Amino acid sequence: MKKTLILLILFSFAIFLGGCHQKQPKKSMPIFVTAFRVGPKTIPADFQFVGVAKSSHPVEIRARVEGYIDSIDYVEGTMVSKDEQLFRIDPRPFEASLKEAKGGLARQEAILWRAERSLKRIEPLYEQNAASQKDRDNALAEVLAGEAAVIEARANVVKAELDLGYTNVTSPIQGLSSRAIYREGTLITPSINGLLTLVSVIDPIWVVFSVSDAELLEGRAEGEAAQLILPEEPNYSVSLQLADGSTFPYEGVVNFASPTLDPKTGSMIVRAQFPNPDGELLPGQFVEAIVSGAYRPDAIVVPQESVFQGRKGMYVFVINSDNTVSAREVETGEWYKNYWIINAGLEAGEEVVAEGINKVQNGAAVHVVSKAKFNDLETDRMR
Predict the structure, then answer these.
(1) I need a surface site. Which of 36, 75, 153, 202 has the fewest CB within 10 A?
(2) Residues 6 or more apart from 145 whose CB is under 8 A from it?
């Protein structure tokens, strides 16, 4: 019995010692993060649209007389000057028509001269009662008819001169020329194939883009909620980003906005005008138009890296007073530079996790450090 009691005491002591040597649960260390303090800011409201460049003054070059193309007198695709000759239509038929018209004028002038001479002879005889009233009236009528015929003949000369001048097809503006649609030897009939080429003014140049009805309604709602302030006058400036990511060096202004929506697309057409002295923008070129002029007062913004996608929407980690974090759903708006605009879900003065968000979970303890310290810790961790 005594031996049994001693064995029980020894066994219990061994259990006690074994328990003392068991590893204690390791307390989790705080996660190093950087913080962003939320505060209201007045920020510009820029809107981005896909636009296409268009000539500010496109002109169709059309033939005004019928004839065969004699020559193409410009280099296709180059800048042409005002009044520069582009095409020449065979002038010989029109030169002949002009000579014929001048001949007709000379004939009518001769007839008028004869009628005037006859009237001068009749007048003294009429005064001496040697000629009847009828003879005088006939002579006067011949003069009046001759004068009318001369006017008509002069008009025919003018028309023939115009037609001859139209054989030299010139550009009414300075601009960028397009290809010649028809080549030498083609018979041109103005009402059928009179379009010869196109000349486009590209300085200044227009950029046209569309604003959807949804964007218009959203902007109106934000304006009514005082979340978006539009300029008192429609003084919007526009900058352009080109396809290679570069910025067009000149700023433009909105010079037209359609008062109605296009029923086919449900959008409003907006046009901006830009200086283009170097011809960097060409008609048909696609660009990204960034419209500025409005602003958002007292906007709540957070860094883009603070926002993450959850199952129900967008979330941020809010840093609590006990240095733990809580995941909170937020309503995001537009981007501004590297920030998300938060429409709902955050209040001024709160802090959210900025960098290190990929390491934390809901309820985790964090230790806020400066950005420089955080970068040093990340560098050490990667070694």
Answers:
(1) 75
(2) 115
> Are 97 and 85 spatial neighbours (Cβ–Cβ below 8 Å)?
no
pLDDT in tens, 306-318: 898 888 899 999 9
Residue 369 has phi, psi (to 5 degrees) of: -130, 170
Q: Where are the beta strands (DSSP E) in the chain?
A: 31-33, 35-37, 40-62, 67-72, 79-80, 85-89, 168-170, 175-177, 187-188, 195-212, 237-241, 252-257, 267-274, 286-303, 308-309, 314-319, 325-336, 339-344, 351-353, 366-368
Instruction: Note the pTM of the prediction, 2 decimals.
Output: 0.72
Q: Residues 198, 61: contact at Cβ < 8 Å?
A: yes
Query: For the chain, which domains are there?
Result: 40-54+203-377 (2.40.30.170), 64-88+168-193 (2.40.50.100), 92-166 (1.10.287.470)
Tell me, rounded to whole angstroms, the distance of Cα 192 from its chain centroid.
34
pLDDT at position 260 is 93
pLDDT at 375: 76
Place of tokens 């030498």: 184
- What CA–CA distance (Å, rounded) separates 92 from 72? 17
| Residues in the chain, total | 383
| Cα distance between residue 345 and residue 178, in whole Å | 56
User: What digits encode the pLDDT tens for the residues 194-249?
Assistant: 999 999 999 999 999 999 999 889 888 888 888 888 887 778 899 999 999 999 99
Query: What gap in Å lies between CA 51 and CA 356, rounded to an integer?
Result: 38
Q: How far apart are CA 108 and CA 122, in angstroms?
A: 21
The burial class, CB within 10 Å (0-12 / 13-18 / 19+), for 60 is exposed
CA atoms within 13 A on the CB side of 343: 13
Cβ-contact 269, 235 below 8 angstroms: no
Which residue in this structure is represented by tokens 């708006």?
333
Contact 155, 114 (CB under 8 A): no
148: which strand partners? none
Q: Write out the two tokens for 57.
A: 């003054």
